[in-house]
User: Which sequence fits this backbone?
């Protein structure tokens, strides 16, 4: 038998005994209109609409689709809806457990079904990025000859994880993380729907808020937790799912955290101040609270990048590259794996030597500019490349530093009003000690008095 084939018999069993299937399966959308989120992919005339035969282009839509998005955003659901809407056979494979042998078996079955029964096949291949180049190559004949409608899913960037021949023959659709409103709507539908919990229990507002935090934008996780908590509540004879029941069921304490209120800013502030104070354990605690509360990982990454310059600066010049790399990684992978990246960066920043010299330097310079201490650029520093510049005396007398043995030209660079003004006061912490020596030496070479 072909792997993971959704047969008519299996669907019939589910219809006869809905409770035999998990809630996430029972609530699987039957049409594109029931899909939660991803509205940018579901507009009239979109490729997915055309793939199921809606609008211009009809059924002759794309024959191969790659769905790229975080876990729980509906990749499997979209593939299933396509198969139901087009009355095609639906075969699901996971690249974690399947290989070339299983792929060829599905393709052979698809060719027999097409030739013998005139029925087309949708092959949903999950985690395609786990397939090697040779394994992905085995899909090409089926895609080119339209023996199957391939819908492949990946959480990794397909430009790096999918071979170019397959990528060029596929339509790439990017799924966005589900919002809290998306997941909230799904939970409320599952509570009332005949396929779901049939209003057997209620979900109070505080419990719903915690469930949304647990879900983290993952619809499957939300429904799984809801089903478990509902079962526990009913076993206790309770008509509503209390917060304590949910906590006991999922073994996760509710975090008092309002992402739109004071708690949001208080915890974020505590994270940065703990990093500034070099208390790595406190910093990790506040990071964990933000993660557990469902904070946007990009927000956390932005705060770390600011901290790298504001509180560490040149004491550890690698702090900013670490924070920037973390932000880039977070944008690519999302939660839950992004928690590891944020921990990596937080620990590195908390333990780095500290200096706020970059912060105070630009602050002092801005203060002078805003106070009107500017003045004209010295004539020898002005642009002398355009016609008539020489007649104005621009660039006259400028000394090219590279022509001198030490590479330092003792000439005035700042405007007259600020010629002896010093903004940068380096610390002797970490790597900035060498900058302190360098700035002292260069100021002497320039003949400047510090002020």
Assistant:
């Amino acid at each position: 038998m072909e792997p993971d084939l959704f047969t008519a018999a299996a669907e019939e069993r589910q219809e006869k005994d809905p409770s035999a299937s998990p809630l996430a399966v029972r609530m699987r959308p039957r049409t594109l209109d029931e899909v939660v989120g991803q509205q940018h992919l579901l507009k009239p005339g979109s490729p997915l609409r055309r793939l199921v035969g809606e609008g211009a282009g009809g059924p002759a839509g794309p024959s191969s689709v790659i769905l790229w998005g975080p876990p729980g955003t509906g990749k499997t659901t979209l593939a299933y809806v396509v198969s139901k809407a087009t009355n095609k056979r639906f075969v699901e494979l996971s690249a974690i457990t399947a290989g070339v042998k299983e792929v060829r078996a599905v393709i052979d079955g698809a060719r027999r079904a097409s030739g013998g029964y005139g029925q087309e096949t949708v092959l949903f291949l999950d985690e395609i990025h786990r397939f090697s180049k040779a394994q992905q190559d085995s899909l090409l004949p089926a895609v080119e000859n339209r023996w199957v409608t391939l819908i492949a899913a990946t959480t990794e960037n397909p430009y790096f994880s999918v071979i170019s021949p397959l990528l060029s023959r596929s339509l790439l659709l990017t799924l966005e993380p589900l919002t809290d409103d998306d997941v909230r709507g799904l939970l409320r539908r599952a509570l009332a729907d005949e396929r779901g919990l049939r209003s057997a229990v209620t979900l109070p507002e505080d419990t719903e808020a915690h469930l949304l935090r647990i879900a983290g934008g993952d619809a499957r996780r939300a429904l799984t937790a809801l089903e478990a908590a509902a079962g526990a509540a009913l076993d206790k004879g309770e008509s509503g799912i209390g917060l304590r029941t949910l906590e006991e069921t999922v073994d996760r304490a509710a975090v008092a955290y309002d992402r739109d209120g004071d708690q949001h800013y208080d915890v974020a502030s505590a994270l940065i101040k703990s990093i500034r104070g070099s208390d790595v354990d406190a910093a990790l605690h506040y990071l964990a609270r933000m993660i557990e509360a469902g904070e946007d990982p990009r927000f956390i990454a932005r705060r770390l990048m600011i901290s790298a310059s504001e509180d560490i600066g040149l004491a550890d010049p690698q702090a900013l590259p670490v924070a920037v790399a973390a932000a880039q990684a977070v944008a690519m992978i999302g939660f839950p794996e992004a928690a590891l990246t944020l921990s990596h960066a937080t620990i590195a920043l908390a333990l780095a030597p500290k200096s706020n010299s970059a912060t105070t330097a630009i602050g002092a310079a801005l203060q002078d500019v805003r106070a009107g201490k500017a003045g004209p650029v010295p004539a020898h520093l002005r642009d002398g490349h355009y016609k008539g510049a020489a007649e104005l005396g621009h660039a006259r007398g400028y000394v090219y530093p590279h022509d001198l043995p030490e590479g330092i030209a003792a000439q005035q660079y700042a405007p007259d009003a600020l010629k002896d003004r010093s903004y940068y006061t380096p610390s002797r912490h970490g790597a900035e000690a060498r900058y302190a020596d360098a700035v002292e030496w260069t100021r002497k070479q320039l003949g400047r008095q510090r002020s």
